[in-house]
Amino acid sequence: MKYLTSRPGRFLYVHTPKHGSWLNLVETLFGKMARTFLKHIRVNSKQELKERILLGIKEINDSPVVHRWKKFDFAHAF
Fold first, then answer.
1. Residue 32: which H helix or E strand, with range?
2. What is the pLDDT of residues 5-61, one digit of tens each?
3. How far apart are CA 69 and CA 8, in angstroms?
4. Which residues contact 20 (CB under 8 A, 6 or more apart)?
């Protein structure tokens, strides 16, 4: 804690709604991967699969979509 207090502004604490789990975002990402660049693929090795996944993630990151929480009241987050 002493180390972290010596580095102000290093971390940003973000409140997420209780009813919208971050897992929903992860599940959405995996679903998108399965429907797009992993659909009907054949690979010859784990390395090739890894490269295809990393390329797909790079393509997703090249045009990011910001997730906006809806119906979230910050006052009730605690």
1. helix 22-35
2. 888 887 777 766 666 666 777 888 899 899 998 999 999 999 999 999 999 999 989
3. 27
4. 69, 72
Q: How far is CA 69 from the centre of its chain?
A: 14
Please give the pLDDT value at position 37: 87
CA distances in angstroms from 51 to 27, 45, 54, 55, listed in the order given: 21, 10, 5, 6
Average pLDDT over residues 1-7: 81
78 token code pair: 């605690």
Contacts of 37 (CB under 8 A, 6+ apart): 52, 53, 55, 56, 59
- Give me 39's structure tokens: 């659909």
